[in-house]
């Protein structure tokens, strides 16, 4: 079958049209996805309930007691003394000796 020049350009034209329509569809969807210009309000207004306790007798509500945290006991010995002792023990600990060994074991 012989393809003429007209059919060849027609195929390229159709591919271009499909590509352009896909690109324009992608660009237009972004335009339609904008935020609304007016605030969205619920149809039924919400009722805000107060968190205060209603007392039937009419007397004022007593305030809640203020709770103060208890201080921790003083460490004996202090944390600095413990750290110094740990460092001194680390310095006095035996260290590894440098050992040079060959990779190949000696044959007898």
Q: Can you tell me about this structure?
A:
It is a single chain. This protein has 108 residues and is mainly α. Helices cover 39% and strands 0% of the residues. The protein is built from two helices and no strands. The protein has helices at residues 5-32, 79-92. It is flat, with a radius of gyration of 42 Å.
Write the SSE topology.
Elements (H helix, E strand, L loop, with lengths): L4 H28 L46 H14 L16
State which percent range the strand residues make up.
Answer: under 5%
State mean pLDDT (0 to 100 scale). 78
| Class computed from helices, strands and strand pairing | mainly alpha
- As a whole number of angstroms, the C-alpha radius of gyration is 42 Å
Question: Uncertain regions: pLDDT < 50 for 5+ in a row?
Answer: none
Q: What is the CA–CA distance across the termini?
A: 84 Å
Bin the helical content.
Answer: 25-40%
Number of helices: 2
Total strand count, please?
0
Shape: flat
Order of helices and strands: HH
How would you sum up the major sheet?
none
Brief rundown of the structure:
With 108 residues, this protein is mostly helical. The protein has helices at 5-32, 79-92.
Structure keywords:
108 residues, 0% strand, mainly alpha, 39% helix
